[in-house]
């Protein structure tokens, strides 16, 4: 318990230390480039806003798709709505910069509306982040369909209300009005600097504390989410120190937000990459399980027949395919004397020997209890016989001592070979003929190799 607490403590310390380093470096970098900002200012703010809009839209879609995968993790939907709502409000912000592509234009920027959109976006995102974090605690509780519908409707109504309120408060509607910036003097009002800004900072600090306490920075996604909260707190604190909307603080804050959003995108891409890696690995494992025999890890019967049919389709006299069917001699006695488990060990030993005795392009398979088969493409009968003889002699040379007990006593094997030289012969016929040769080996005294004539 103490160890876990210490580990978590270390995580928090590392997180805040990383934030400190990041913001320190960022501040130093920004101070260096700030001298160029006035020249770029007609473009910079709206351009960063467009970037942010695209990033937020991307995150919203990604989160919604992630939720769609299992429809269990409803907290993802709260995050999706936070970013989708933010993207809509960012589009609204852009409507207050009508001449951003034309720096010499006379279009007037509506700073007050841009500020209202900014305020509502922050309230909406912070609230949905807090909700998402609380919903995260419910991920292991089975929620009823009604509860799911209730939560989703609640999130939707909240987001829609925030967007509608923003529209009503902005100059698009004359029903309500809110003065955060004086559009003539471009000074921020007392309402902004002494009430709204402070409320927003408190909201983001609440979101940050909730996230840190509940998610305990368990993965990169929550680390980047917490980092975004810190970014908003610092952004708002920077704006607190500024009384003029065209000051550096405004650009500073947007650059901060864009960078923090990029970190979330990085976390999501990392997520996708890890998911791809895990699922690819699982696919590989299940594919291998579907083509291999569970006991010996040799290829199974169906894979062998499939490969043999494939090889036979290109067979010719100059490109013959050899099949070797092998059967352990008096294996029943091994089972009866030493038990089934020891019998299994013998099968595994023989399987390893077969695998080690053939080329990478050859196929060693187990097609029955103690019946093994080798598929040797591009191998004439004489070469196949040499392979079989080598395996037979090697196997018979082992005993209990040289195998550290894997073989309880020396074992022998009988082998039959058939070599196909034309594609007219089927896989079943090949095995049948090699099998016949193997039975001839059994009938003529076992522990020998017979080639089908
Ligand atoms: N341990 C173990 N035994 C198996 C497995 N599959 C089949 N067997 C056993 O393999 C033995 C096969 O014996 P048989 O084919 O009758 O003949 P044999 O004793 O090998 O004698 P010959 O083939 O005539 O030399 C049987 O006792 C089966 O129970 C398995 O997966 N594990």
Structure description:
- Its EC number is 2.7.7.65.
- The protein is α+β, with helices and mostly antiparallel strands and 453 residues long.
- The protein has two domains: 15-101 and 109-265, Rhopdopsin 7-helix transmembrane proteins, CATH 1.20.1070; 301-451, Alpha-Beta Plaits (2-Layer Sandwich).
- Helix content is 66%, strand content 6%.
- It has helices spanning 2-33, 37-70, 75-94, 111-136, 145-169, 190-215, 220-240, 248-291, 301-312, 331-338, 340-357, 381-397, 427-443, and strands spanning 321-328, 363-366, 371-376, 413-420, 449-451.
- It has a five-stranded mixed sheet with strand order 2-3-1-4-5, sandwiched between helices.
- Helix 2 (37-70) runs antiparallel to helix 3 (75-94), helix 6 runs antiparallel to helix 7 and helix 7 packs antiparallel against helix 8 (248-291).
- The model has no long low-confidence stretch (mean pLDDT 90).
- Guanosine-5'-triphosphate binds at residues 295, 327-333, 335, 340, 343-344, 347, 369-370, 442, 446.
Briefly, what is this?
The protein is an alpha+beta fold. The chain has helices spanning 2-33, 37-70, 75-94, 111-136, 145-169, 190-215, 220-240, 248-291, 301-312, 331-338, 340-357, 381-397, 427-443, and strands spanning 321-328, 363-366, 371-376, 413-420, 449-451.
Features of this protein?
alpha+beta; 453 residues; binds guanosine-5'-triphosphate; elongated; Alpha-Beta Plaits; 2 domains; 66% helix
């Amino acid at each position: 318990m103490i160890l876990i607490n210490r580990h978590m403590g270390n995580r928090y310390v590392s997180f805040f230390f990383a934030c400190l380093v990041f913001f320190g470096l960022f501040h130093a970098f920004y101070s260096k480039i700030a001298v160029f900002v006035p020249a770029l200012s007609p473009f910079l703010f709206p351009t960063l806003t467009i970037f942010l809009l695209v990033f937020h839209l991307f995150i919203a879609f990604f989160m919604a798709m992630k939720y769609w995968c299992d429809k269990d993790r409803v907290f993802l939907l709260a995050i999706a709505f936070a970013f989708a709502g933010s993207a809509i409000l960012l589009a609204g912000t852009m409507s207050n910069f009508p001449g951003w592509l034309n720096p010499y234009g006379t279009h007037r920027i509506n700073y007050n509306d841009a500020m209202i959109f900014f305020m509502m976006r922050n309230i909406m995102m912070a609230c949905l982040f807090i909700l998402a974090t609380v919903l995260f605690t419910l991920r292991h509780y089975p929620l009823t369909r009604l509860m799911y519908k209730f939560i989703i409707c609640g999130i939707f109504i909240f987001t829609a209300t925030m967007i509608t309120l923003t529209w009503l408060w902005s100059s698009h509607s004359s029903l309500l009005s809110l003065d955060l910036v004086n559009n003539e003097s471009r000074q921020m009002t007392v309402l902004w600097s002494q009430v709204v800004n402070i409320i927003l900072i408190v909201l983001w600090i609440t979101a940050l504390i909730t996230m840190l306490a509940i998610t305990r920075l368990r993965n990169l996604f929550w680390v980047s989410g917490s980092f975004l909260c810190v970014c908003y707190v610092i952004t708002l604190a920077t704006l607190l120190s500024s009384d003029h909307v065209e000051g550096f603080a405004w650009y500073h804050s947007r650059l901060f937000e864009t960078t923090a959003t990029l970190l979330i995108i990085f976390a999501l891409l990392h997520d996708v990459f890890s998911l791809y890696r895990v699922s690819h690995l699982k696919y590989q494992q299940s594919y291998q399980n579907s083509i291999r025999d569970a006991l010996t890890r040799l290829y199974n019967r169906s894979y062998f027949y499939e490969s043999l049919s494939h090889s036979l389709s290109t067979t010719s006299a100059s490109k013959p395919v050899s099949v070797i069917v092998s059967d352990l001699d008096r294996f029943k006695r091994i089972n009866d004397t030493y038990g089934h488990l020891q019998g299994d060990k013998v099968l595994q030993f023989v399987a390893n020997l077969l695998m080690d005795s053939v080329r990478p392009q050859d196929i060693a398979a187990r097609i029955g209890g103690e019946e093994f088969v080798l598929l040797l493409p591009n191998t004439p009968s004489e070469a196949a016989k040499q392979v079989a003889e080598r395996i037979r002699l090697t196997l018979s040379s082992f005993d209990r001592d040289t195998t550290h007990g894997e073989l309880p006593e020396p074992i022998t094997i009988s082998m039959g070979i058939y070599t196909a030289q034309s594609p007219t012969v089927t896989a079943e016929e090949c095995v049948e003929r090699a099998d016949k040769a193997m039975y001839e080996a059994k009938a003529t005294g076992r522990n020998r190799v017979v080639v089908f004539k």
